[in-house]
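User: Run a structure prediction on this.
Assistant: Running it now.
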Amino acid sequence: IDLALADEQSRLIQLDDEITKAAATALLPFAELVTLLRELLEELGKIAGEFRALDVAVLGVSADTPARLQKFREKLELPFTLLSDPMLTTAAALGVPVATKANFVAVSVLHPTVRTYPKRSFLQPALFVWRRDGTLTHRWCQTESSLTNLYGARGRPRADQVLQVVRKVLT
């Protein structure tokens, strides 16, 4: 996957290179402004040792700036890398849905942060898992974005489900 994004320290990370560094890589698009997605990252942080034991890299990606992601990572004490994608290039590269223009007004009223994003939108929850050889072995994307499902957050996998998917990929 030819996708390069800045991490929370503004270092350019090439996804193809990251995938080859671990037995498996899990990429989770998220929106810091959506509580259920913050909770998922917190849950993942709590079981980070289990991912490390399996040699699995966990990466988060959002429309937030590197500086905002750094504060977010420190606040939640997250032990994994967060990638900044304000132009939503992940959406195009991996087919990740974004919050739609139709619900922009509702989202921006509930979360004024959305107005600061260049595309005035954010990535829907998703989970991608690659093996070290670059084979995409698992793909799940939330396709519905509405207030009733909390803009995709309600359907997202739990941390234990992410771990279960990774274990399955590695066996």
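The beta strands are 4-7, 12-14, 24-29, 56-62, 81-84, 126-131, 136-141.
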